Amino acid sequence: MTPKLPPRRLLAVAAALALIGGQADASSTPNQPASPSANGDQSCLLGSFHCPPRPLNYAMCRPNALLEFYDPTLGKDISLRETSPTQARAQHVDSSNQSVYHFSGDVKMQRADQQLQADTVDYNNVSTDYDARGNVRYQEASQLLAASHMRGNTNASRGIADDVRYQMLDSRGNGVAKQGHMLDAQHTRYSQATYSTCDVGHHLWEFRAKSIAINKDTGVGVARNATMRVGKVPFLYLPYISFPTDDRRKSGFLYPIIGNTSRSGFEVSAPYYFNLAPNYDATLDPRIYSDRGEMLAGEFRYLLPRTNGQFNIEYVPNDHGENDGLADTKGTSRYLVNVANRTALWPGWQFVGSYNHASDASYLYDYGNGLSHAAIYTLASNAAIVGGGKWWNASFGGTIYQNVNPFVNDNVLPYNQLPYAKFSMDVPLSRWLEFGMDTQAAAFRKDRYVEGQREDFYPYLAADFGTAAWFVRPKVAYRYTTYQLSSDYQDYGYHGLLGSNPASSPFTQKSPSRALPIVSLDSGLVFDRNASLFGTSYTQTLEPRLYYLYVPYRNQNNLPLFDTSLMSFDYWQLFSPNQFSGADRQMNANNLTAALTTRLLDDSGVERLSASIGQIHYFSPQRVQIPNGQTSPGVPTDWVHSAYVAQVDVQLSDRWRLNTSYQWNPNTRLTDMAAVELQRRIANDGIFNFSYRYRRGLLEQYSASAVYPVSERWRLVGSWTYSVMDRETIEAMAGVEYDSCCVSLRLVDRNYVNQGYYGFGPAPAGGQIDRRDNAIMFEVIFKGLGSSGGQIDSLLQRDILGYQ
Question: pTM score, two decimals?
Fold first, then answer.
């Protein structure tokens, strides 16, 4: 079976350009004509970060006028025509001529998937020619047709019909024609015809063409000398246009992009999709930027039995942008390359690689920070051989980084790892005992920073005792980390940077190491009882938990920081063996965590409420710290207790959800963190979100977003984020969506602080840098001409939790 690529995302922003050619992927349409479009229950679970797109909604369409004679019992297999006899029924039959039959009065002729009804029919039993007159109604596997007169040949599946009304059964495509020609079982051509996916007789938009050809074998329709009309107003002449008649991918122009950014001016893009084969395709995307010139972008995707991947490139032959103090790119060629590949090597092993590179650090700032793009600070490229089995996994490769933030230098980049190797295993020794190991080795490279190799070995032995009412999980681990630093290791300061007061360099050994045991004991009880709340019965649990951790102190000030940082403190940090990410620091600990959780479970076992609170008691100071200056290793803490950490998640119904978390520090008697998230479903396809986020000294923000269904056809969308510390609105977005039987419209206005590249110091002197940007986008979707996924989709999904 040949694998199928995912459908292309189509960007709809302007009707005129959208219609210069067909769409690469038709929208999903109902296959059962008797029930075109029920939208179905496609609601997204509350709290989901990624929701499936809403299917095209044809529920607002009127019952199809041609479906009155549709016979759902008729077969669909056109291959049976040659072997199936023709059956006829009528009120009167004249068979005086032995080869020609004259039928009259409610005539019905049927063969395989074909059915012909008319007032009178003349049928030649030898040649299979027929001539039908008066109220002609014809049905076959893929279409319905009504006409005043129809003649043809049943064996050849040929026919000519006059004064035609037709309806595609695999889509909502329909129209009228002066004449229809059934050339064979797979091909039909209409003359002086119209085509639309709107209600029969109520076309909000349509093509009026000299000829429209339908190829059922490829699922493609072609209109020649066509005029696009909205209502009764013609606004675009198209000498040739192709369009899909089912949900198969096809070559053609995609919906174009029209936009505007402060960095590049107005953008016009008209991508063309090449459906080269079932398992590979390509897209060519020429673009024009008013302030910077022309760009040629392209994409190639492939899906082979043992390998798959994607290649993307953007190339600007001559950038016309003015020098703004960031980089002198005027008159230069610029580019962006993205390559990704995954290849199966042998059973259990595969090659995974990616290459991402820009011509300069300003490229994404100039071309990539549009309406729906988040800022990207670094580009990572990786190549690795990865494998795994039932109890183990391993990888060997390398990773490098490129800085694409024009406001900072390369010091902000992570270390390149050239090469690295990782191995993990988890082997059950018995029903309650397991042995595991996490091992990694890497060579860290970064200009002007201390470099070297690091090996980290982390074997452990863990047991799991318990039942549904209790558990005890002891774990014993040993961590050994060793380094081989470069020969100039003594020239670097605490943060590893060359010139950062090397006189007080902590690196006194070329091959420092660290070895220590890690012992933990996790235990808990689970009590439950029947409870009732607001007249609903629940099972309530009470779950006390104790977690003890012991890690002896080791002085680690002479170890570099290759990939390690302090993690944010949260509820799960109460039960973590290390507060640092990476292997360069291992916290010392003589800690006891006490926590308590209660839950409410409904009769189906769904968790409707969960509330937890916990705190760590420190029996010894936390002496291992990240350096807080060029000459200081960090000050040990002598706190007796950590902050109290509490969190509550409530979802008593499918209509609303509330999540809260809170941290209060008894040592400073201050709130360290607080967050509230509320989500409420409105009707069937609306949503409301509110959140408050606070972290002491870092941020305090309010956010609200909503999708509000005004009516069946209209929805309002919006989002708002306000920073208390900055005393300004960080982002505000408002828009409106309109949906009808065959047309969808969306208009969105977004005003935002371009903070992706700010906060790293002042902009260059004389730079023309605007801190606040505004973007407007308008999108038109003609249902049945292509998929509706566009730039607005990604923006709304990012800014409105639960948007569909």
Answer: 0.79
